[in-house]
TrEMBL record:
Alphabetized InterPro entries for the sequence: Aminopeptidase_N-like_N, Aminopeptidase_N-like_N_sf, PepN_Ig-like_sf, Peptidase_M1, Peptidase_M1_dom, Peptidase_M1_pepN, Peptidase_M1_pepN_C, Peptidase_M1_pepN_C_sf
EC numbers for this chain: 3.4.11.2
The encoding gene: pepN
Organism (species): Noviherbaspirillum aridicola
The family this protein is said to belong to: Belongs to the peptidase M1 family.
The name this protein goes by in its record: Aminopeptidase N
Sample GO molecular function, one term: aminopeptidase activity
Keyword tags: Aminopeptidase, Hydrolase, Metal-binding, Metalloprotease, Protease, Zinc
Coiled-coil regions listed in the entry: none
Aminopeptidase N-like N-terminal domain segment(s): 86-190
Residues covered by the Peptidase M1 alanyl aminopeptidase Ig-like fold domain: 452-557
CDD domains, alphabetized: M1_APN
Matches recorded under SUPFAM superfamilies: Leukotriene A4 hydrolase N-terminal domain (SSF63737), Metalloproteases ('zincins'), catalytic domain (SSF55486)
Length: 885
């Protein structure tokens, strides 16, 4: 909790540490009520600094004893205040012995050492290590660790830490010990320990070099039937990193541990990854296709961090995207490769871009907008954002688009050659890419330093006489907090030209020097405006611009509805086929929103061209069902809202609903056929092909249920009753929950009874109701009184509170402001328990200025109420202050 005004930390103030740590030895006497931690550090002066003070950070830890070079330090030898312990005029070589006392059972922040369901876990990124002991807790201090764990043998039979197990044994008094040593230098944020009653699935794996490694997935007793998919995902990740990047696992043992109370998805601690149970546990009974895919990508993400994050780490937290953007890019590519097919790769790309548009574009346009490499922060945990992660991944992807796959690989090789074992910056990464390819990427730096989503405007001209087609690209970027003016970015724009048959034309780019024809050209836009000229263009083409979403920008391009339908049907670039359909739908929906705002009806009946285009997609049997599912899903209410200057969530909701009903009505027969054609009888398998079928089938069901008639109710009920997997079961339940089917209440009650024992499924049960159109603020409050609800568990809080506030816009934005009052209450309640989770929820209202005036007023009042709360954490304070600024 805050005691004084929080400070802003600036990137420009970076200074190397005065002392470096060589070795860390720790001894833990684990007890939930009072754990004692004895730490011995050897430090030496850093030649890169002329500081003479040893600076250690501590947060909420009690200092029991402090000795330097064998002598106890008295209060005259050091200063302690504000979380900083400073030892002045320390000698060249220092050995510190620090004893601290902490209270894991009382730690509800889930940072540092805490207890979850009776077991001990740690989370040290970003600054959690200082909640365990005093330490130069900053990522540019890398050291070797030796860790002794001691605990009651009955209660905590399993004792784990980073690296290799050196020794274990009994202590005689009912306690036992384990000694772990990590052979690699690491920053303190990668430290981890786990102690408790856990069981594991283990396998050995032979690496490319022939070395054998031990792989373990640790879970609570009773969950061993849910670990195989995580284990398989780990093995696939190991193989992929060897093949694609020549990167081998450097440890003899690699462990994954699942924990039910966790703030984020997972954590890449060296050799001891700690995961939210949501990203480990799966079997057909409890996990959906999306869960299976999520597990595969998060297991891969954390595993890939071993090289991009751990071996090469961040100099300071402003460089967070150095490891996160890069590692997200790597996990995206991995997931795409795991599907294997071209159409599967495209679907994965569509999914990733949807996340970007749904969450990152709004962030980039709001009061919390920040560059991929931020310039300042109050609380670093607030900067684990979609901008740092997902936009960061787009920035990394652009290198690959500009340099080609081989060029990108050369850059990666040079990056490791130069920086293995070091803490570096985003500039170092960019320079490795540039140097390995003999390219000047200095302008590319603006992607790291400028916030905001650039807008690229496209104008074209065809000269039949000259057989020339010109594309003029112009860029701009709206101001963001602290950045009024933007310089032009270096933007790769992938372009193709379609002939009247819908086939790709061979491209001859004027001035490209190459006589070879290709069908996609990557235009490099580096100025405010540039014209590119294609030669030998025999007829007026339809351009396909920003193929595969080659840059994270808004694209302004004027297409007729006929051209969009044409692209939707023919573009060889699957991403742009999807995009054309989205544009077509968006255009209709925006026009309808305008009508509704002017007092008209949300009559979607006249959406002729859209119905035809959707029908063509739905009935084209050559298409991949997964692609069909995405192509037939309308832009979300959030994405629609982004297109408007003034947001009226009720008008948006009404229009999207009307559109869904009209598509259900107009294509009823086709939906029914698709439903039947995409059933997946027999044993469940989460592979992409079957998952795609289930996805399309459940989309068909969701559309049919929009008609809210007996036939649809029966279809949903039958699917529910016969489901042999969670994807089908929850798909049916969601359909029922949004309908007035007679079996609605009974199905919800039965689902709870059947899965009461499975926390992750109970989360789904809350979340589904929180997002149902039938659930208003009063109903959410009622659900909070359910015995299974608790704010203390982040997954549970997210399942109900976040799902409602972020996933049910029409109810959350109730005209009387009751949703906002509810939001404020929950932010305040969470603030006292878990500042990180509270600050995430606080983000929900950060775009309040975009809403219509009546709602704005009420949102502002709710924000002010939170801002005026006593003992607000700096996490929440930063978010609400910036939102109100
Ligand atoms: N490095 C982790 C990951 O993305 C995220 C951990 C963030 N934790 C936090 N408390 N901010 O894989
Ligand atoms: Zn990560």
């Amino acid at each position: 909790m805050r005691t004084d005004t929080p400070q802003t930390i600036y990137r420009k103030d970076y200074a190397p540490p005065a002392y470096l740590v060589e070795t860390v030895e720790m001894g833990f006497d684990l007890d939930p009520d009072l754990t004692r931690v004895a730490t011995r550090l050897t430090l030496s002066r850093n030649p890169e600094s002329d500081g003479k003070s040893v600076v250690l950070y501590g947060d909420g830890v009690q200092l029991v004893q402090l000795r330097m070079n064998g002598r106890e330090l008295t209060r005259r030898g050091y200063a302690l205040g504000n979380g900083v312990l400073e030892i002045f005029n320390a000698p060249e070589q220092v050995t510190l012995e620090i004893e601290t006392a902490i209270h894991p059972a009382l730690n509800t922040s889930l940072m540092g050492l805490y207890v979850s369901n009776g077991n001990f876990f740690t989370q040290c990124e970003a600054e959690g290590f200082r909640k365990i002991t005093f330490f130069p807790d900053r990522p540019d201090v890398m050291a070797k660790y030796k860790v002794m764990l001691r605990a009651d043998k009955k209660k905590y039979p399993v004792l784990l830490s980073n690296g290799n197990l050196i020794e274990q044994g009994d202590l005689g008094d009912g306690r036992h010990y384990a000694l772990w040593e990590d052979p690699f230098k690491k920053p303190s944020y990668l430290f981890a320990l786990v102690a408790g009653s856990l069981v594991c699935q283990e396998e050995t794996c032979t690496l490319k070099s022939g070395r054998e490694v031990l792989l373990q997935v640790w879970v609570e007793e009773g969950n061993l039937d849910k670990t195989q998919h995580a284990m398989d995902s780990l093995k696939h990740s190991i193989r992929w990193d060897e093949e694609r990047y020549g990167l081998e696992l450097d440890l003899d043992r690699f462990m994954i541990v699942a924990v039910g109370d966790f703030n984020m998805g997972a954590m890449e601690n060296k050799g001891l990854n700690i995961f939210n149970t949501k990203y480990v546990l799966a079997n057909p009974r409890i996990a959906t296709d999306a869960d299976y895919a999520g597990i595969e990508s998060v297991v891969a993400h954390e595993y890939f961090h071993n090289w991009t994050g751990n071996r090469v780490t961040c100099r300071d937290w402003f460089q967070l995207s150095l490891k996160e953007g890069l590692t997200v890019f790597r996990d995206q590519e991995f997931s795409a490769d795991m599907i294997g097919t071209d159409s599967g790769r495209a679907v994965k790309r569509i999914e990733d871009v949807r996340v970007l548009r749904q969450a990152q574009f709004p962030e980039d346009a709001g009061p919390m907008a920040h560059p991929v490499r931020p310039d300042s922060y109050v609380e670093i945990n607030n900067f684990y954002t979609v901008t740092v992660y997902e936009k960061g991944a787009e920035v990394v992807r652009m290198y690959q688009t500009l340099l080609g796959r081989d060029g990108f690989r050369k850059g990666m090789d040079l990056y490791f050659e130069r920086h293995d074992g070091h803490a570096v910056t985003c500039d170092d990464f960019r320079l490795a890419m540039a140097d390995a390819n003999g390219r000047d990427l200095s302008q590319f730096e603006l992607w790291y330093s400028q916030a905001g989503t650039p807008r690229v405007k496209v104008e074209t001209a065809y000269d039949a006489g000259q057989e020339a087609f010109e594309i003029t690209l112009s860029q701009s970027c709206a101001p963001t907090p602290g950045q009024a003016e933007k310089k032009p970015f270096h933007i790769p724009v992938a372009v193709g030209l379609l002939d009247s048959q819908g086939l790709d034309m061979p491209l001859f780019l004027d001035g490209s020097g190459s006589a070879e024809a290709f069908t996609t050209a990557v235009l490099e836009l580096t100025e405010s405006s540039q014209t590119f000229r294609f030669k030998h263009v025999k007829e007026k083409p339809v351009p396909s611009v920003l193929r595969n979403f080659s840059a994270p920008v808004h694209l302004d391009i004027d297409y007729t509805e006929a051209e969009l339908a044409f692209l939707m049907a023919h573009d060889s670039d699957a991403f742009n086929r999807w995009e054309a359909g989205q544009r077509l739908a968006m255009r209709r929906m925006l026009a309808l929103v305008k009508t509704v705002r002017e007092g008209g009806q949300a009559d979607a009946g006249a959406a002729g061209p859209l119905h035809d285009a959707f029908r063509a997609t739905l009935t084209d049997s050559r298409l991949d069902p997964a692609f069909q599912e995405f192509a037939l899903t309308l832009p979300s209410e959030t994405v629609l809202a982004e297109q408007l200057d003034v947001v009226d969530p009720h008008a948006i909701h009404a229009v999207r609903q009307a559109m869904r009903r009209s598509l259900a009505q107009a294509l009823r027969g086709e939906w029914q056929i698709a439903y039947q054609a995409n059933r997946t009888p027999g044993e469940y398998s989460p592979d992409a092909e079957s998952a795609g079928k289930r996805g399309l089938k459940n989309l068909a069901l969701a559309y049919l249920v929009e008609l809210d008639d007996d036939a649809a109710h029966r279809l949903a009920q039958t699917q529910y009753d016969n489901a042999n997997n969670m994807t089908d079961r929850i798909g049916a339940l969601a359909a029922l929950a949004n309908s007035s089917a007679p079996g609605r209440e009974q199905a919800l009650a039965r689902f709870y009874e059947d899965f009461e024992q499975e926390a992750l499924v109970v989360d789904k049960w809350f979340s589904l109701q929180a997002m149902s159109r039938k659930t208003d603020v009063a109903a959410v409050r009622e659900l909070m009184r359910h015995p299974a609800f608790t704010l203390k568990n982040p997954n549970r809080a997210r399942s109900l509170i976040f799902s409602f506030c972020n996933g049910n816009p029409s109810q959350f934005h109730a005209a009387d402001g009751s949703g906002y009052e509810f939001w404020a209450e929950q932010v305040i309640a969470l603030n006292a328990i878990n500042p990180q989770v509270a600050a995430r929820l606080a983000r929900t209202l950060d775009r309040w200025r975009k809403y219509e005036p009546a709602l704005q007023q009420k949102m502002k009042a709710a924000l002010q109420k939170v801002a005026a709360t006593r003992s607000l954490s700096k996490d929440v304070l930063e978010v609400v202050t910036k939102s109100l600024a």
